[in-house]
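Lecture 7 notes: from sequence to structure.
We start with the chain below.
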Amino acid sequence: MGLARGRARLGAATIAVSAVALLAACGGADGNTEDPSEAAVGATSSAPPSSTAADPAHAVAEPGPLSGRLYGDDLLVVSDDTLSDELIEQIEAIRIGDVKGVEAAEPLSYAQFTVENKLYNIAAVDPAGYRAFTGEGSAAWQEQWDRIAGGEIAIRDTLQDRIPLDDEDYVEVGSGKTTHRIHLGAWSPAEVDVIDAMVNAKWGEELGMPEGNALLINTGFASPQEVRKKIEKLEDLSITALDIVAQSGIDPDTYQTVIPVGSFADAVGVYRYTPIGGGRVQPDPAWVREYIVTEQMPILGSMTCNKHMMPQLRAALLEIQQTGLADEINPDEYAGCYYPRFIAGSTTLSNHSYGLAIDINVSGNQRGTVGDLDRGVVAIFKKWGFAWGGDWSYTDPMHFELDHIVEPG
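Predicted structure tokens for the same chain:
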């Protein structure tokens, strides 16, 4: 089934006013319209991947028709690495007085990828179990889950104008030079607000995502905040209250964990930050000490950036100076490198939060313009491993960011 038809069915799912009608329209081939609250959730099909999968090399077993209970998404627990079976058992056993604290829990892999200087959260999921936490319309849309199982990616429908696709409807997932081209299977109506994109476990492994480092939890009749307090006593984990995120876009009461995939993985490591108001974030001081340095550089003077980028940034600026192009960069219009904050008007981080990007010659190179940067300067930055925002679908010609590591000779 082509992507255009998938988009049309997504539109139908999004505006549906009856769960029964939606199940009838989007159910499996057998026309199953069973009440989703009747059966259990989470069983993974043991059938082999479908031979008609869009990407057989990355396909897993299709999840089959929806046949389980639907759950709300209350908490997302994220660790730097795989959550142990023992810890998951402890979480599932939590009680708040006489009330069971965890009604349902679904393990997944959780990390981040970047597209045009914006960070997006990606989850590698088991379609059969995860779908039950994503809202009625999303859970019942069978084609979405079959496409994820078949090796395609589903991306939140609210991001249609922000994540660019190529002419064949593929998106580059990763960071810098290390990306994987994954075909878009669906613009998803999924309601888990902190998840921007979903793939299956095979893609999660290829992308280098830490296996099973997150747990999506429904707390049933128990208070999510009380359950969070209990989990916090078990281990140092990022625990996000998803109802708060749905209302304000960010949970200010927990630190967030960023685990990039692609080229930025080594240059960022695990980035923990806490929102501190005014669009600012406070990274873990230990991370700042480990990764951020201040050095005197050619042309621009004192610069505070990520230590992994500094050698090639110095080499690029030095070559610009040596080739007589230094006057093409105005030091008074250098807008910085490392600034840990959300992109204005959003709760999205940019690569400046890791000190992996610089903005120069601001006044003549605003977003959405061709810009007036000397193309010789652009070519030298690209030679030294930088991507240029002037090449993006929505241009940002003042912006250069780390694309790949280049070791100066």
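Points to note: Confidence is low (pLDDT under 50) at residues 1-46. The longest helix spans residues 3-15.
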